[in-house]
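Summary for the steering committee. One of the milestones for this cycle was to obtain a three-dimensional model of the protein with S-adenosylmethionine bound, which we needed before selecting residues for the alanine scan. The sequence and ligand used are listed below.
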Amino acid sequence: MRIDVLSIFPSYFDGLTLSLLGKAQDAGILDLSVRDLRDWTHDRHRTVDDTPYGGGAGMVMKPEPWGLALDEVTAGSEHPTIIFPSPAGEVFTQKTARELSVRDHLVFGCGRYEGIDERVFEYAASLGEVRLISLGDYVLNGGEVATMAMVEAIGRLIPGVVGNPDSLVEESHEDGLLEYPSYTKPSVWRERAVPDVLLSGNHGAIAAWRREQQLERTRRRRPDLLRAADADA
Ligand code: SAM
């Protein structure tokens, strides 16, 4: 998969390829490049923002650098998906990550200040599929952290990125439930024992216990997930 990120703070992404995504990059599974939006400015100050029409607080990202950057990174790409992180977008979920993990080319446009001139989203739709995606109902300073979260969630679903694909199947949100609790050695630590059933060797009983734990945990911490599953049924 090819991923292009456009940002005025490209160094934010230096840590993204330290672990599994770095290995995927080395193995040629992932082709991630982070570009500085200011490279598409043409004035001495490399200006990317200006005051808002109609007045109001803050600055708005100018359309010109975005247009040139999007033209260049999507040139020759057949079906790019252009994602703009935005608190006003659809909320990112595991389902979104799975859907995007099978695309050939993702472009992330990281906003700053009060956001990006609205016409950029309209223009981007002439180059590919546009998605405005929110990490959650709160406001960040810029799209960089949201992009990193999305790239990591999407990237780990690409075949070959996570060593053992079985470890993806049972994770939280894969089947609409939270994951069951996990334990490792020692079997007793600071007077806290691992549940007996996990030491029993009875795989049927272990699977039943884990399922019950998933349901109980989801009911207690995230009842909204169970309600959503009921509504879908
Ligand atoms: N004025 C905008 C609004 O009220 O919707 C918020 C702008 S925010 C300060 C600057 C940038 O941070 C946004 O353009 C977006 O790229 C990013 N951002 C902020 N919160 C986000 C969130 N919850 N999810 C994804 N991106 C977010």
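Key point for the committee: The pocket of S-adenosylmethionine is lined by residues 85-88, 110-112, 114-115, 134-136, 138-143, 146 (CB under 6 Å).
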